Amino acid sequence: MASGSLLVVAAAGYGKTTALEAACADGQTAYVTASDLLGGAAVGGTVGHVAVDDACRLDPPRQVRLARLLAAFPGHVRVSVASRHPLDPAAVAELPGPVTERGPADLALTPDALFRVLREEHGLADADLAYHVHHLTAGWPALTHLAGDVLRRGAGRHDLLPALVEAATTWVREEVLAGLPAWLLDLVADLDPITEPLCAAVMAATSDGPEWTPGELRPLARTGLLVANGLGAPRLVPVLRAVLLRDRHLRTAAEGLPGRLRTAAAWYQRHGYAVAAARAFQGAGDAGACAALVESGGDGMLAAGGAAEVVRLIDELPATARTPRVRLIRADALRMAGRALESVQAFTPLLVDAAETGHWTAGLVWRAAMLPYMRGDFRAALDLLDRAPEPPAVPTADDASVLACRATTLHLLGESDAAAATAARALSAAGTAGDDRARAFAHIAAAMIAIGVRREEHLAEALAAAERAGDVVQQARVLANQADCLLRAARYPQALRASARAVRTAEAGAPPGVLVTALHNAGEALTRLGRYEEATLHCERSIQISHRAGLRRTAPGLYGLGEINRQLGRPEQSRVAFEEAIELARGHREPQVLVPALAGLARLLADGGDVPAALAAAAEAEQAAPPGLAAVALVAAGWVALAGGDADQARGRAADAVCAARASRHADALAEALELSAVAGADVEAARAALREAETIWERAGAPPAADRIRVLLGRLPGADGPQRWAAKTAARRLVALGVPAVDGAGLVPADAAPVRVRVLGRFEVYVGGQPVPLPAWRSRQARTLLKILIARRGRPVPRAELCELLWPDDEPRRTGHRLSVLLSVVRTVLDPTRLRPADHYLRADLAGVSFDLDRVALDVDGLLRDAAHGLRLAREGEPDRAREILTEMDAAYHGDPFAEDPYEDWADGLREEARAVWLRGLRELAQLCRRCADLDQAATILVRLLVADPFDEPAHRSLVEVLLAAGRHGEAQRAYDRWAGAMRSIDAPVPSRAVLRVRAAAQQA
């Protein structure tokens, strides 16, 4: 009997066939359709795996026959079966066991994977847009690619769904919905969420419908039509639901629909789905019931994450149903949905009415104040909160919320004492009001002011209250704060779990500002864990959400990008991000971002040799740092002092930073302060002890890159033993694999040990893992040309349109975009054939264009330029022997002009001229060095080589004649003179006087 079966069940377009074909790539798998296998198709005798596709096309008896046929294969043969619909249970029972089933959840793209698909195959680099596509498609691969095509043709975020429905309708009808019961599709199209008890209730109230049978929804879930929404409740894939509703609208309104929706609304209301109940009442035409639900339960709807839906519901109500209370709920819903400008417009008449009548209510004040608070304008928020009436003897939930909002605002304005006193009042008021949402709000405010264990206790209380209230908005805020606590305590795996949960919760309906914070926290945790590509994605998404929602909260994401690029050795990208983050944080008075960004910039500038600018940034960081961030600023100041040659000041800053980090209980800052003290210290054993303590902190924190950096430093210390040196070497390899190029300014591996080496001097060649890439691996000449162009641009982004024009000058642009995506995929595969690294490790494709990260590879022309500059500098500084050695190596490395096989391509001219000019300058200097040390034969050889490359270099001609005469090689000197004179005549330049031969000969005789 065969050795078990894999059953893959999912609707069309989920990638079942692709998965089976991938399994056939090893050459030992037989791929066959179910019909062909039943028809007697032969299967080779040496196969170890039989992959059967399209089992769904068989009726149940033939499915059983297929299963029995598969069960008869020898015991070593593995069996895989793919089907669009669940197989008949009798057939599954006949399959060789054990049977493992994989379904849509295993095949669907994650949001991160979907982003990579849109970026690499469709040229779409908007991370948040990718998450929106995931929301609409649930990661269904075919729909994802269709969305990419629709977006590339010009659809925007807001019109994506109708455009996608238009493009997908025919395929969905014919490939997905065909064969499914029409009455079931008609039923579920109107329900969200969808449960078995709800469907049973609706069908029981339908006089002419079929009787509901338990399990009717199971096939929809197993094939991927029914998926979980953000809160875990089942729903139809949104694109699929929109297609169903469009089809029904084109036919006619469903008979009995109002009655069904009223039944659903009543069921939703009984079971706590307030938004769904209001939606159903509205669909049934009962605007009064919908308005009453919003009036009485609007706050709960918003707290449950229904802001966008509440706005839609209210906007569709008749004007007579929009009471002041409903208008207030709408204004707050707009804020929570991220529609800041519309929220301002909605709040304005309410605030004007309050100002004219003098009737300021607590409910209006705190909700309106959250709008400038969300945008970082804390002073404007406080001005609004000042208008709130004094709480009564028995405060309400709104009174407690005013106090909680005031406490957090005062804290962010730096008024710590007033903030602490107000937070205490908020806790008392929330307790008296007995409202869990207000209690959660108050505990969050208290946690922002507290430190250590007390802060953790407040957050735990806040989370418990928010969960009791079903308030996902407050849950997201609490989780984001808990993640921040874990980050400061250097507990990174736990911080990532908390921040990931915060992101998921915020996506379910929290205001965009909460999602921005959660994404930034997740990005910071991922950075510490060395997952740089994911960290970049989270930071970029936080920036995009902030821009899209009109928030002024881009500084944290920019700081995150700056730090990622600093660690990965990308100084220019890092500096741009840091400087923009600093500018924004200054304007918004955000020391939590300003101080780390200034510290990061100071270290970056110091590493680059700009010590004065680094000193200015470090000084500003120290001045702006509150007590909790003092250690961060002090560490930066210490590194800058060390770069400036003041080791004593660096040691003093390190000692102060250690004290500040321990006082604020920031383990990460303590480890960084210990590292500084070790590098700046003169005592080797003290340095070793400090580094060991830092290593322990990072190991406990779960921060592999930081721990490996410390291991490298330990291995560099004098007296490091064998195990320490081996650990340092292993750590360096891990850091290089992550893309980290250096530790403490020193490179981690020699150039010839780089995973990828590229040779452009003379013949173009690429080496991966030490082996040259064969021509067939490129699959086309254009793939090699693409890489050449990107290298010639020295890492600068090249717009996609320009690349297409260079690669296919005679083709129409609409035909070349997809070809470029294919070439990018080919080049990535060539450079990283095992796909061990992130997709943008070597090639980065974003809105600016396509660029090649030169820091990731060993490029021969880069080495030549560096060696030439180093040799020339040593010659100027009076070290001729070392200069001669380096310039000789440079000359040996010049195998020809860059891209010699493409002599007429304009894109190669810049790099070609630069390399040639630097090489010739190095040769001139090398010849002079050889003359000075009386190595005349070598000087002559070098000058001849120089003149072959540039036959019109008159100083080189003169030097060659002089060297040959000085060496007594008069005949060669005469011939050298003749070549000199001939070269000058050919360009109509003055011919040198023959006296140069006589003068030098006389001098030689004397």
From TrEMBL:
<feature type="domain" description="Bacterial transcriptional activator">
    <location>
        <begin position="859"/>
        <end position="1004"/>
    </location>
</feature>
<dbReference type="InterPro" id="IPR011990">
    <property type="entry name" value="TPR-like_helical_dom_sf"/>
</dbReference>
<dbReference type="InterPro" id="IPR019734">
    <property type="entry name" value="TPR_rpt"/>
</dbReference>
<dbReference type="GO" id="GO:0000160">
    <property type="term" value="P:phosphorelay signal transduction system"/>
</dbReference>
<comment type="similarity">
    <text>Belongs to the AfsR/DnrI/RedD regulatory family.</text>
</comment>
<dbReference type="Pfam" id="PF13424">
    <property type="entry name" value="TPR_12"/>
</dbReference>
<protein>
    <submittedName>
        <fullName>Uncharacterized protein</fullName>
    </submittedName>
</protein>
<dbReference type="InterPro" id="IPR016032">
    <property type="entry name" value="Sig_transdc_resp-reg_C-effctor"/>
</dbReference>
<dbReference type="InterPro" id="IPR005158">
    <property type="entry name" value="BTAD"/>
</dbReference>
<feature type="domain" description="OmpR/PhoB-type">
    <location>
        <begin position="770"/>
        <end position="854"/>
    </location>
</feature>
<dbReference type="InterPro" id="IPR001867">
    <property type="entry name" value="OmpR/PhoB-type_DNA-bd"/>
</dbReference>
<dbReference type="InterPro" id="IPR036388">
    <property type="entry name" value="WH-like_DNA-bd_sf"/>
</dbReference>
<dbReference type="Pfam" id="PF03704">
    <property type="entry name" value="BTAD"/>
</dbReference>
<dbReference type="InterPro" id="IPR051677">
    <property type="entry name" value="AfsR-DnrI-RedD_regulator"/>
</dbReference>
<keyword id="KW-0238">DNA-binding</keyword>
<dbReference type="GO" id="GO:0006355">
    <property type="term" value="P:regulation of DNA-templated transcription"/>
</dbReference>
<dbReference type="GO" id="GO:0003677">
    <property type="term" value="F:DNA binding"/>
</dbReference>
